[in-house]
Amino acid sequence: MSNPPSGHILPGLRFKQRFPLLALVVERVVLSIVLLFAVSVVIFGGLEALPGDFATTYLGQSATPQAVANIRQDLGLNRPVTTRYFEWLGDALRGDFGSSWASKNSVSEQIGKRLGNSLLLAGFSAVISVPLAVGLGMIAVHFRNRVPDKIINIISLAAISLPEFFIGYLLILFFAVKFGVATFPATVYESMGLVDRLKAIALPTATLVLVVLAHMMRMTRAAILSVMSSAYMETAELKGLGAFRSIVKHAAPNALAPIINVVALTLAYLVVGVVVVEVVFVYPGMGQYMVDAVTVRDMPVVQACGLIFAAVYILLNMVADILAIIANPRLRHPR
Amino acid sequence: MNGYTKYLTSRVTAGGLSRREFIGRAMAAGITLAVADKLFTESAQAAEPKRGGHLKLGLEGGAATDSKDPAKFLSQFMFCVGRCWGDMLVESDPLTGAAVPALAQSWEPSKDAAIWTFKIRKGVKFHDGKEMTIDDVVATLKRHTDAKSESGALGVLGSIKDIKADGGNLVLTLSEGNADMPLLLTDYHLVVQPNGGNDDPTASIGTGPYKLTSFEPGVRATFEKNKDDWRSDRGFVDSIEIIGMNDATARIAALSSGQVHYINRVDPKTVDLLKRAPNVEILSTSGRGHYVFIMHCDTAPFDNNDLRLALKYAMDRESMVKKILGGYGKVGNDFPINNTYALFPEGIEQRAYDPDKAAFHYKKSGHSGSVLLRTSEVAFPGGVDAAVLYQESCKKAGIAIEVKREPGDGYWTNVWNVQPFSTSYWGGRPTQDQMYSTAYLSTADWNDTRFKRPDFDKLLLQARAELDETKRKDMYRTMAMMVRDEGGLILPMFNDFVNASTKQVKGYVHDIGNDMSNGYVATRVWLDA
Questions:
Q1: Whole-angstrom Cα distance, residue A58 to residue A60?
Q2: Gap between the Cα atoms of A252 and B461, Å rounded
Q3: For B382-392, how does the pLDDT look when each residue is reduced to its tens digit (9 = 90+)?
Q4: Which of A53, A68, A103, A105 to probe by mutation at the B interface, max B CB count within 10 Å?
Q5: For chain A, what percentages of helix, strand and coil (3-state, to nearest 5) are there?
Q6: Which residues are CB-contacts of B33 (< 8 A; sequence separation ≥ 6)?
Q7: pLDDT in tens, B113-134
Q8: Cα(A85)–Cα(A74) distance, rounded to whole angstroms?
Q9: Residue A80 in 3-state DSSP?
Q10: Domain layout of chain A by residue ranges
Q11: Taking CA atoms, what residue in A is nearest to B246?
Q12: pLDDT tens for residues A85-124?
């Protein structure tokens, strides 16, 4: 873009030029909100298109046409799709996800508990896996193509190659059944103390750490290695910096963007993608909640879960992008 | 000794019945005082049950969508939860399936079985300390029979026209005679609640042996002993914890590591492996549930009885039971009743795999080309395998079956009861009448074989109102023969309920009524340290 003559700058453009960072962040946030709306349409439409409806699925073989009709009438399923969509959206914007069709419980309240459980598990796993992965990645770079690097690579590749349910079963088999040292099932409930909770989630956390570790570790390693081959690293080496110091001080900060990205994706996965782990360990998280609801076509719950999952993904991606922009000043001035 | 007395003596052995209670009940069942007294002494000498302890169950079938309202009980999990805190008016005998007293002490039908008078037990207290009254009973039944009700029992109670209190008695007036009325009241939705649950259907206040102390749908339910329980032959443990475990491997791991005492739904494929665990006991109970291949009698090519017969003869039932059920089941005979029902028609010849007869009828039917069978994993566990197995056994009879695997999602809406030939399952019903009325009456909504026979319908209604058991048994035999030889049902097997417990669990009652000791497992067993 050629420079516009001063005095005739468009207001938006002036803002952009004065606060390039803030403008980018605002743009990113607005985009995320638009995306979230688009997702809400897809969720609602997709669920409408699913075969089978709540009344028949819920009553199963004990359904009589009378009972089915009663339920449909009760839930207002006879009304047009668009009306129901906008009502739902309006309520959701106010944080009210309605009540479950099946149990009549408040969805927001249930999600509050379930999301808390999911976040505990995800948070605990992240706290362990992120530093571990980044640290191991740096160690691997330091010893690249030597024995420690190879060992780290082989173990993490093995862990990523096994399906997560299999890792879970193996851990259960050894630590719960054979040695009896770990708590299983990992069911947590409201009246449970924090210590008991942490004990209960030890095995699922271990499973998740093993599952996500390799991805982050290898990304860290690759990112740092690519920085290592650049000219300024050579300079660092020539000026006599120690190998480890040059990795931590010079290479790692410049490799931050891709690392942040993979960490954000991993975090998102830890919140929304752990259904299998939740099922295996009998852990009452969001994934399990959504699966239960899909089975009986409990739409308010499915919609709420879908929207929250989408929001988590979009939010974490947004944060990752913004952090990457902050970490890499070059990204602030798009060409 | 009949089944009910056997059950009573087993309860005495379990230490649950006092001499007085035992003799009272045995005499009500038609046993003389002297015999009852002797039976009691004998059984009381057997092993004493222990009281106390914390029982943990890991059950499949819980979901976040479960409701505490008994009218909406649907899952196996809630079935078991409901049995812990609530009582019905009538229970069924675990061994014979006959109706036995619970909150209703006794009952009397009118001559045409259209008006039933139930005497309601006195002095029974709800968990909140209030006494259960006839008004609570009436309100309960009214709530479940209301035309606007979403109750799972609505279909069962459809013939009740009027519900009223007459002194301390409950009087039900039916639109037509029904000799099975007491058994219909055993339905697990019909928990008697204060004011029928109209005030708060989800309060979980009942008259059962345990009080609900916490409940998180799909996660966990806990109970403590109801100290004022009106019965002493149940509720041996101090507290119960039921954990929802939908993953089969998780259940097995929890049981074999001793974290739970009992699990349901053991996969027949893995049961032999589980048997090897030293502290585990497999509990397999014959049931009424059955796996079926259904043909629409009114749709070509299945509107031809010779083709239907050919397909029936081409079914290798023995190998189905062996390979699909792992031996945990019994062969079926193409009618939906087995010997766990009262008035089971005995002596009907077992249909066997006969490729020659199948080929003969197939030829006679004049049909050529392949027959399309739709199936899915959700139809029943191993449904797709069963279809392929059937395809093989048909091949030997020269019948080509094309197996189409349908997505599990929407199977019950798009395939079952819609497509002319598919696989499915049926849970049992408390009575033969109900089983036939649900699925074989011409006008039944779930007549999934499109079996429409006016003479069958007439017989069904006659049998329903018939109080003479011999005559009734004859009628049921005729009906069974009609379905077996002319219907659209291929019934290769009745599946057992396969559950498992640790060896600590004692006093398990194999109840033919339904899975998990008819849901009563937690209230019937005790823990042996």
A1: 6
A2: 83
A3: 899 999 999 99
A4: A103
A5: 75, 0, 20
A6: B23, B27
A7: 999 999 999 999 999 999 999 9
A8: 17
A9: coil
A10: 17-92, 114-329
A11: A279
A12: 898 888 888 888 888 888 788 899 888 889 999 999 999 9
Size of the A and B interface in Cβ pairs below 8 Å: 142
Tell me the C-alpha to C-alpha distance, in Å, between residue B491 and each of A112, B294, B338. Answer: 47, 8, 11
Is B263 within 8 Å of B499 (Cβ atoms)? yes
Closest chain A CA to residue B59: A282
Q: At B456, list the tokens.
A: 């069958």
Nearest residue of chain B to residue A71 (CA atoms): B150
**Interface contact A173, partner B, CB < 8 A:** yes
Report d(CA B99, CA B172) in Å as an integer. 17
Distance CA B162, CA B507 (A): 40
List the single residue in A with minimal CA-CA distance to B429. A62
**Which uninterrupted H or E stretch holds B506?**
strand B505-506
- Classify each residue of A52-72 as buried b or exposed e, where b means 16 or more C-beta atoms within 10 Å of its C-beta: ebbbbbbbebbbbebbbebbe
Q: What is the DSSP letter of A249?
A: I
Q: 3-class secondary structure for A159-183? A: HHHCCHHHHHHHHHHHHHHHCCCCC
Q: What is the DSSP string of B369-422?
A: S-EEEEE-TTTSTTHHHHHHHHHHHHHTTT--EEEEEPPSTTHHHHTTTTSSEE
Could you give the 3-state DSSP secondary structure of residue B161?
strand
Q: For tokens 């780290």, what's the residue?
A: A152
Show which of residues 105-124 on chain A sit within 8 Å of chain B, judged by CB atoms: 105, 110, 113-114
Contact A107, A98 (CB under 8 A): yes
Model pLDDT for residues B39-51, shown as the tens digit of each residue:
666 665 556 788 9
Chain B residues whose beta carbon lies within 8 Å of the beta carbon of residue A176 = 253, 257, 259
For residue B257, the chain A residue with the least C-alpha distance is A177
Distance from the Cα of residue B23 to its chain's centroid: 29
Nearby residues of B79 by Cβ (< 8 Å), 6 or more positions away: B61, B73, B188, B514, B515, B516, B519
How many CB atoms sit inside 10 A of residue A335's CB?
A: 4
3-class DSSP assignment, residue B320:
helix
Angle at B395 between CA B389 and CA B400, to 5 degrees: 100
CB nearest B148 (choices: A70, A293, A295): A70
Cis peptide before A185 (omega within 30 of 0): yes
pLDDT, averaged across chain B:
90
d(CA B351, CA B332) in angstroms, rounded, equals 8
On whether the A114-329 domain is CATH 1.10.3720.10, my answer is yes
The minimal CB distance from A51 to the residues B247, B257, B414 is found for B414
Do B506 and B49 touch, CB atoms closer than 8 A?
A: yes
Question: Are A289 and B72 an interchain contact pair (Cβ–Cβ within 8 Å)?
Answer: no
What distance in Å separates residue B229's CA from the closest CA in chain A?
27
Angle at A162 between CA A159 and CA A166, to 5 degrees: 115
Query: What residue type is assigned to position B432 of the chain?
Result: Q
The ipTM of this complex is 0.80
Tokens of B528: 């042996």
Contacts B263 to A, Cβ<8 Å: none
Nearest to A103 among B217, B256, B413 (CB): B217
Q: Is A144 helix (H, G, I), strand (E, B) or coil?
A: coil
Query: Using alpha carbons only, what angle is made at residue A91 by residues A86 and A96, rounded to the nearest 5 degrees?
Result: 150
**What residues have CB less than 8 Å from A131, skipping those under 6 apart?**
none
Are B261 and B527 in contact by the 8 Å Cβ rule? The answer is yes
Query: H helices of B165-237, where?
Result: 181-184
